[in-house]
Design goal:
Blueprint: E1 19-22, H1 28-38, E2 42-47, E3 61-62, E4 66-67, H2 68-71, E5 77-81, H3 87-96, E6 102-105, H4 111-115, H5 119-123, E7 130-135, H6 150-156, H7 177-200, E8 204-209, H8 210-217, H9 219-228, E9 245-250, E10 253-258, H10 262-272, H11 276-280, H12 287-292, H13 294-305, H14 310-319, E11 324-326, H15 330-334, H16 337-342, E12 345-350, E13 354-359, E14 364-365, E15 368-369, H17 383-391, H18 395-403
Parallel strand pairs: 1-2, 1-6, 2-5, 6-7, 7-8
Antiparallel strand pairs: 3-4, 9-10, 10-11, 12-13, 14-15
Helix pairs in contact: 1-7, 7-8
Length: 412
Amino acid sequence: MDPHHAPVDELDFPLEGVRVLDLSRVFAGPLCGQVLADFGADVVKVEHPVRGDDTRDWGMRIGKTETTYYNSMNRNKRSLTLDLQSPEGLDIIHRMLPQFDVVLHNFKSGGAEKLGLGYAQLKAIKPDLIYCAISGYNSSGPEAARPGYDLVIQGETGLMAINGEADQPPLKFGVAAVDMMTGMYAAQAVLAALFRRERTGRGRLIEMALYDCGIMITSYYGLDAMLLGHDPQRYGNAHPSIVPYGMFEAADGPLIIAVGTNAQFDKFCRQVVMRPDIVEDPRYATNVERAKNRLTLLPMVTALIREFPRDLLLQRLAACGIPCGKVLGLHEALTSQRTRQGGLLQDMPHPAAGATSVFAPPYRLDGQRLPIRHAPPTLGEGTRDLLRGLLGLTDEHLEALRAQGVLTLPDE
């Protein structure tokens, strides 16, 4: 048996029995749904019958209806296609709703209410419903109607201003960090609401704004800015207060060196770069002094590191207990022995592509990584089974709805 993955039927999933209706699309909402699905919730992703989630057209194509972008947010879900703007599609949602515990969406302000999917409208059907609405900005503020886009909010929250090198323009994060953190925060809120409902029997309205979460990501840099009264300096890959700490170029490639204590710096000078005179210089004896004199120290350290092969430096650093590591390319990291041994990527069967790589959940419970129960679904893959099982719709009824364009059905 794979040491990282126990058989699904032997695992006790924390959210087993919880049903989630995921009406969201793109990133933050789908990621929230994926977190809940990873923990065992039955997450039904509702998608437009023709185009599906917008991200089915983003990234690199896999098969006919999936892409790398879509697959990164939608494992362990089932896809149900419905035209929510049709009376028949809305009726199906309303009829299914009593069997669901959570609703997720990221409609524009007023959009859910216009469709008949607002909190008050759904609470009337399911009084203990947990309803999570994700938007760009505060739903009760003057910008409630503005659409939320990760890149725009990275700019507006100051995140781009703290990212990158000091002599370069502001820089966005390599991934959609605001969307990602909003999805994780939203999942935390849903989990808290589910826990509370177990005690009280009451549902909850949860509202998450990308802007709010973007501000939270600024973290200690944000509090530095408030204390300073202006933006803190950007240091790129370096650390604002620990020296030497960052990415350096060895003779044959980049590596990370994080010298966190004075004892480590002593070993770094004496046993790694073989320059005891540096640590004996009072300008560099303590981290406070090193940070104060970084403009003289760092060029010297950088030049010394370039004289040694990377593997030799890593060997010496590890022997001294100094945190260090190679800077790998993305493909190199994903195919590394560390990633393979951790079971972090799995090849899953795919009806059109044959097989496709899927990220495994990062959670380990009782020593086991939670498994991928379902590969990211093809568009409408679960429509027939879901509507048969949840509402008892006959094949004739389903075919009639397909003919009206309300839904699509997978080929059997």
